[in-house]
Please model this.
Amino acid sequence: MPSNKSVSDAPITQFVNCKILKDHKLQKEDLWVREGVILNPEKLFFDEKGSADIQVDCQGSIIAPGFIDVQINGGYGIDFSLATDDVKGGVTLVAKKVLEHGVTSFCPTLVTSPPDIYHKVLPKIQFTEGGPTGAGVLGVHLEGPFISQEKKGAHPEQHLRSFQTRGFQELLETYGSLENVAIVTLAPELPQSSEVIDELTRRHVTVSLGHSVANLSQAELAVQNGASFITHLFNAMLPFHHRDPGIVGLLTSDKIPSGRTVFYGMIADGIHTNPAALRIAHRAHAKGLVLVTDAITAMGLPPGRHTLGQQVIEIDGLNAYVAGTKTLSGSIATMDMCVRHFLQAAGCTVEAALEAASLHPAQLLGITNRKGMLQYGTDADFVLLDDQLNVRATYIAGKQVWNKRF
Model:
């Protein structure tokens, strides 16, 4: 045992001169880390008589929990919906690149595809812990093919499917396995969707409502059956109407089971959602807002033609369209861009903007015991930012995995 009565020989790192996002507030205090976990300094001092081995001067930076992106289709030339010869290598490349944007874990997202794509790709995208090689993988997000034809967006119509004939078995045969799956986006108005939502929830898969023409009653029933997320709110769903607000109405519904929270994704890229709509959603249900990039292959690449699953996508400025149309198809935004835009557009606090990219997605996935917070005992995955929320450095398990070189 070490002479200072510490329970471990592992070095203790103390991050000083920083503002930590903790208990919904930025607080001036130090952050202590050992063996990849955040320490309680009082327990360290009084119980173990321990002290820091390494001290890191954060130079006034904000320390926030690492960002979690639960909807990202690819980036940097990689399309998660393609069955390439090196699916794992593609995921690793994106995982490495997103570190510079403060993302410490993510859900690789597959858009509507034929069954053989799922059968080939899903076994190769496994849950992984983050580290120097890249952000951690929290499970796959399957967006489709069980969605509405009317609100398919950029999803290829020929590959859409329904549960009508075989219910949950149809979903299982389409995907091949749910072993590596964290989230499934589906349209709750499809026949037998209640049975499917119930079974997915029982298997601890998060169910999201999206690409749908569901009315509010259908959406409420889906939540009562276990659905807990809305895929890119306002996009690919019926517009809000005062007599039937549709899925959007879930934000203020009084039919949500006690103790449950409905979360909703927002693509805060300045294109998918008008700033007024961002403000409406945030002011109606701030605790449920989850920032997502919905980024596609072209994130980090120059303008031109790229792929998204079975579709060809054309990048025009900051817009990503299905080639030859004006149908939006994902974004090319990074998570730190979304955080900054959301802060400005919503007029919210810095704390709220940061929690929408960290705490809320962790709550959605039920992993706040490890991720999304800087509480004692949680993983030391965090991001250092300046006061304008530009990323200075990214840490996973207390180790620096990326830093901005001045």
Q: What stands out?
A: The mean pLDDT is 94. The radius of gyration is 21 Å. Residues 335-346 form the longest helix (12 residues).
